[in-house]
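Box 3.1 A note on notation
Throughout this textbook, protein chains are presented in two layers. The first layer is the amino acid sequence; the second is a token string describing backbone geometry. Keep the layers aligned when reading.
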Amino acid sequence: MPTRKFVFDFDSTLTSVEGLDLLAEISLKDNPDKDEVVKQIQEITDLGIDGDISFTDSLSRRIKLLKANKAQLSELIAILKTKLSASVEANKAFFNSHQDKIYVISCGFKEFIDPVVADLGISADRVFANTFKFDSEGTIVGFDESNPLSQHNGKVRCLKESGIEGEIQIIGDGYSDFVMRKEGVAQTFFAYTENVSRKKATDNADYVVASIDEFLTINEL
């Protein structure tokens, strides 16, 4: 029987928030138009997650609006560490005891994901995510466009190329997570609704779970 592997999304799954939205709150805090810009970023995030605009376009548009700097990432990481989803926080023992079977595939960024999931025992080599590009002053000006996760259906290609083998279960809140199941590179998709319920994800899920506890019960863990 193939070994079961668990591939988690990061934003709105392992954490209760979207990392780039939170970075916008930090980078725009002195901007008089902050609320309007943050709202725009959140709308673009949702369009990308639901597949209504290309993910590359979504990422590029959000980063332009962010006007963020490398120096602000430490503040973001500190906040994200306090924003683990409640049932993730309550089940840290599962993550630590099964760390050899757990991976993260996210369209977020390694610069802030790696240090947050390290608290769950997930090492950087098990995290597949985008990476920022900085200018000489540390301003975030873009992302590595050669990374499949910056492209349409990038999670599918990423999982194919990852070397992860076994019976692969995907746990995430977005349609982009389901696509790995749809394309046959994963066996099961859990739509994760603890923080947000997205109809395109829940309509296509093998299971809809509102917590890690429900996910563990289904897997008899």
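Residues 4-17+83-218 form a domain with the Rossmann fold fold (CATH 3.40.50.1000). The chain has a mean pLDDT of 94.
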